[in-house]
Amino acid sequence: MMWLGLYFKSTAAESAHHLLHETITHIAYGYSDQLNWLNPNTLILEIERSHRLHQTPQQLIADLLIHLEPLGLMAQWGIAPNPTAAELMAQHQIRCWDQASLIECLNQWPIEQLDVDQNTQCALISCGIATLGELKQQPNNQRLRRFGVRLQRYIERLYGEQSAPLAHWHPTEDYYQRIDLMDPITHTSRLQSHLEKTLVDLEQWLIRRDRALTHLNIRCKHEQSSDPQLPDVVIHIGLAQPSFNQAHLKELIALKLDTLILKKPLTTLVVQGHSTTEHRPPQIDLLSGHNQDQTWSDLLDCLQTKLGHQAIASLKPHPHHQPEKSWSWTPPNTTQSIADHRPRPTWLLNEPAPCDRSQLLLEHGPERIETGWWEEHIVQRDYWIAHEPNGRKVWVFHEHSPRTGWFVHGIFG
Q1: Was domain 174-275 assigned CATH 3.40.50.300?
Q2: Could you report the per-residue pLDDT of 289-335, keeping only the tens digit for each?
Q3: Sheet of strand 266-275, all strands in order from the earlier edge strand to the far edge
Q4: Which tens digits make up the pLDDT trace of 141-190?
Q5: What is the DSSP secondary structure assignment for residue 171, as one 8-state letter?
Q6: Any idea which architecture 3-158 has in CATH?
Q7: Within 13 Å, how many C-alpha atoms sit on residue 171's CB side?
Q8: Roughly what angle, to the nearest 10 degrees, separates helices 149-158 and 83-92?
Q9: Boundaries of CATH 3.30.1490.100 in the chain?
Q10: Residues paired with 379 in a beta bridge
Q11: Whole-model pTM?
Q12: DSSP string spanning 129-148?
């Protein structure tokens, strides 16, 4: 695994600290679904599984830092094969891209720069231990007796010998954003402008979660000096069909604001979105990518027009005792079913492949198929459902004529 550590030197006020954390975390979640704050200033995320989408890990990191720039924070970063080491590397801007380079770096690491308490550092130095490598050379039982279990576990996690228990961050089910305005809003045109900017962030939030929006609630608060009896302005938008079409939401907000009259200036906006459990993206033309929201029949018409009628076909069952002859091609949307409750694999090999009977765990069978005696291709087989050593479920048979032995004929999905 490859872990990226981001260390932030921030002088932001404590009141804004939580909001910064949330913003940074949502941005980083677009690059990895395994991330966590190990301390208030260090965020770690696993990037090995996602860096291929950005060609190289360096490109992923560069893109992430570009998206963090508008926050105005100073970010240092480091790389290591485990999260504990990534936290330490980020504070010193060191990149260890593999385990060998990490071990070499840690062995030379000064005790003064180790992320442990001052008393432990003094105890190590007083014992003549200057580097982490010298500490690692001490026998485990002596190190445990002299310096305690806490340091022992920390060293093991730094070297990747023990995994760190992490509870990875996950986005909330509902979208929430509070906007405190420096310049109060007195007209609906400015209110619409602020809300349209928020929709950009909302859409990205939904895309990252593969969710679709069903309801959007907007609460607008007045100045504190205003009449306390004046209620908040509440805008509720319900969608007939779950979606995250930004243009459609802008249109709905504009319709709501057309009839809205602001009696007092607005200073705070609170936007809340409730999402469904899943979003199914619309079908897109495989060839041009322009035709969206097509039905299945529309897609077939386009494919047949571009590729020809002979290029599109479906499969349908065909009554025959031999499995390899029990299907046939048919035009699309004309598939017929045949009542057959016998277990059959969804994938038949073009030619049965020889297999080792001793490596198979027979689960169900035999089912004897003996046919073709009136033709030249006589078949005498006993079929079984079996499992291979790797766990794959297969359809195998023991053939009696014209050849002998065991063969794999199909694979269950």
Answers
A1: no
A2: 555 555 566 666 666 656 666 777 776 766 666 676 666 777 776 65
A3: 174-185, 266-275, 213-222, 233-243
A4: 888 888 888 888 888 888 888 887 777 777 777 788 888 888 888 888 88
A5: -
A6: 2-Layer Sandwich (3.30)
A7: 26
A8: 80
A9: 174-275
A10: 371
A11: 0.50
A12: --BHHHHHHS-HHHHHHHH-
